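Our consortium's second objective concerns turning raw sequence data into structural hypotheses that experimental partners can test. To show how far this objective has progressed, the report includes one record in full. It was chosen at random from the queue rather than selected for favorable results. The single chain below, 226 residues long, was entered without modification.
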Amino acid sequence: MGVRAEAKEKRRGEILAAGLDLFTRKGFAAAKITDIADAVGMSVGLLFHYYPSKEMLYEALIDMGTEQQKRLLEHLKSTEPTPEQTLLFFSTITRRILAEISAGFFPAQLYLLTAQAWYSDEPPVGLLRGVSRKTVLTVSAKQIRRGQSCGVIRDGDSHALAALFWAALEGVARTLAHAPPDGPRPAVPKAEWLLAPLSGTGQGIAGNWRRISPATGGHVCSPDRI
């Protein structure tokens, strides 16, 4: 890549970062293209050479975010842990997302922007490319019911527990994304803390409660609950 091309890509990255910051802080409707241009020190006309509209800039960011969500959703759909391994399955997801969003402002804000788009009516229609909060919650709830059948996940409405799990991760992303850029980075909670509400004991994986079978000494699975 030549020097000119590298400079152009650098500017494109600066535009994406500025747009992402404003979209996550103000929302799609309130974020102005003039504010994004000012943040990167260029005219609106020059910015339009990179992204011809605010909608196209937003779409580029959503595409980046939904690629992450698609990979996560595929993992959720394609992985079939045994009921006994369900809490470990959610632990793997939690650690993976925490590692991504704690890597810097951009990944935390990108995760948050995609989560915000799930709830909002503001963004242009059709940008989420088939990745919906409902789908993620439905697939997660199915795995939760599998864990409940063996007692590794607490009793309760599986959709409510799934919503609680993802809301906790979104809360961490929001804290990291909105931290002052010139201040210390907020501490990232341990994965076990976020998993504690699923385990039912407040102790995460190590302390998950169990139904013990006198015959096997292990978990008792109830297929009719899955």
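The partners drew two points from this record. The two ends are 53 Å apart (CA to CA). The chain has nine helices and no strands. Both points have been shared with the crystallography group to help prioritize constructs.
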